[in-house]
Amino acid sequence: MGPAVLQAAAEARQKLFEVTALALGVDGKALQSKNGTIYVKSNPSRSVPFKSACQRVAPDQPIIGMGSRAPNPKEPMMATFGAQTVELDVDTETGQVTILRFVAAQDFGKPINPKLCISQVYGGIEFGVGFALTEEGLYDPKTGKLLTGNLSEYRMPTSLDFPTR
User: Fold this and answer.
1) Is the pLDDT of residue 73 over 80?
2) Cα distances (Å, whole numbers) of residue 111 to 10, 34, 115, 163
3) Which candidate among 19, 42, 143, 152 keeps its CA 20 to 30 Å from the CA of 55?
């Protein structure tokens, strides 16, 4: 959704520039913004604070930006670029696995919301740890009935399954 959000934001920004251009006596294409200020590219001293520019928007004509993106691919898998690695300790007598540390690297371009991207990477790590170590759907071989149908039997990883730092 990133490209669609960027398109919508750029369109809304340009519409705000058009409103602000009237106050500065220039064309909207002559404006630029930075650090909460909208200013004339050729003369940055001619500027309006972003808050003041927004106050010029008519309440009955809000600024709306639109964006779009390509349709979802028909293939079931999409290419992602990343790598994860884990250092762990295995108790050879009990089979108990302890994660000592992990590293994840993802290439997702320029993030609009870095915290959301980081959360997605953490979620992917948790998903992988659960799949590899704790989650197991067990079925009765005679009836096909799921035997681990609740969270007390189908254990997902918790914060206790991950290193503290």
Assistant:
1) no
2) 16, 19, 9, 26
3) 42
Q: Does residue 9 contact residue 65 with C-beta atoms inside 8 Å?
A: yes
C-alpha 82/C-alpha 48 separation (Å) is: 43
- pLDDT of 69 above 90: no
Give the E-state strand segments of 69-160 in sequence order: 82-90, 97-106
Over the Cα atoms of the chain, what is R_g?
26
Mean local confidence (pLDDT), 93-109: 89
Three-class SS of residue 121? helix
Angle subtended at Cα 121 by Cα 150 and Cα 133, rounded to the nearest 5 degrees: 40
Say if pTM beats, i.e. exceeds, 0.85: no
Mean pLDDT, rounded, for 98-114: 87
Copy the structure tokens of residue 20: 């602000």
Hey, CA dihedral for 115, 118, 123, 129, is it positive or negative? negative
